[in-house]
Amino acid sequence: MTLPQELTRIAAGLHAWTPQISGTWGYANCLLVTSGTEAALIDTPYDEPMTRALISAAAPLLADGTRVRTIVNTHSNGDHTFGNRFFPGADIISTQSSADHLCNEPTPKQMHHLTTETAADQPLGWYMRRHFGRFEYDGDEVLPPTRTFTGRHQFNVGMTEVELIEVGPAHTAGDLIVHFPEQRTVCTGDVVFLDDHPVHWQGPLAGVSKACETILSLDPETILPGHGPVVGPSEVRAYLDYLQELEGRIHAGHRAGRSAEATAAEILSSGFHGHLGLPERIIILTAVEYRHLNDDPTDPDLIALADQAARWAFKHNRDAPVPAPRQDTVLHP
Questions:
Q1: Rounded CA gap, 211 and 176, in Å?
Q2: Cα torsion for 68, 74, 77, 83, to the nearest 10°?
């Protein structure tokens, strides 16, 4: 399992860092924006080794003396924010809602506990070690946003116009997408997942679909999802179809009086989009959607949702190959 040694140019002044490691968690895409002697970064990696790898890959694209002075966090999940602290002095921008809900996110300390102190022979401990045990959380800290907004916010990186558009609640309570009008490019954060089943912690699924429709309304040529390869509008339309099909199945189960667990089990047993990885995420998607259908106003418990998914995976995928451990990852500090 290797990380990118170089960034990929996707448009003028826009270079993507795309691990494209599917079937597991934590490998999010990032985008470097450069113009003259100014630079910004859309999202940061999950831990120090990954962030050092990104910094190394980005170095050839930065003019002498140029450093990243602005970070945009598309949402508050750790795999898009924990690397913030390795860019000292950078202005960190997020939506106000994302900042307000930061307290609901598992901290690096909690992730370290979950991957080292939980029972390895029980579903959650097994699952956390399997998918998150390769990351280095010990000693990490969360660096929160320094500037927030609601609605829309525009700024420039040199001559490059950057438009931030709030689209949450969707994947989380405070998602934003990043639009580069001149380059006809959109960075979606985790509003869009590719290659694996998505996970959406906040919802409802109609909110995620609406966010995808907003992306398409911008008429982009190039789209960088939160996870997966760089794509065009057709792939986002196909993803939107997936969301709407899944929403229909979950709502049908709810109308029939089935529990969230029974509805998720039925969807999984049908082989729903079986070519995608991490099918256990359907457990989470169904539970979150049921919370909306049942008018539950409380914030979701992310660890409890992960535990539900882990129980299904422990039962069905316990003997599947384990993703490569951290020492097999090629890093370039």
A1: 9
A2: -10
